[in-house]
Amino acid sequence: MKVYSQGDQAIVVSLKGAVTPTATQRLLMIRNYLVAKNYPYITEIVPTETDMLISYDAHMMMRHLKIASPFLHMKSLIEHIDISDAVFEKQQRCIKVPVEYGGIHGFHFDKILAELSMDAQTFIQLHTESDYFVSM
């Protein structure tokens, strides 16, 4: 994980590397931690698949926290958030998304089946037997 300055009132947390479910989930763990803590000086959190921009009110931090460097304070805060495998496993979740095939919600379903030379039962089995990672 890399934490670097993005101007004088924001930082970027980067998990460098490929977009994976684990990378995205770990960034969201950091985001969820910060949101739960409700720090008054954090003004905005914008996550992407592998990076996250955290904007903060540097003047408020210097006045109320009596610190010289808001960036160093934020960097230390981020680096001390536990994103270990144990915490990751506890926070992982699966969301079931209902799917309807054919009818008014899938009027093109028969055309897809014809194009794939597949019957509805086989298509539905292939579509529902795996878990899918959905990124942001």
TrEMBL record:
Domain of life: Bacteria
Parts of the chain that traverse the membrane: none
InterPro entries on file: CT_C_D, PxpB
SMART domains assigned: AHS1
Gene3D superfamilies recorded: 3.30.1360.40
Domain Carboxyltransferase, first and last residues per copy: 1-136
Protein name listed in UniProt: Carboxyltransferase domain-containing protein
SUPFAM superfamilies registered for this protein in UniProt: PH0987 N-terminal domain-like
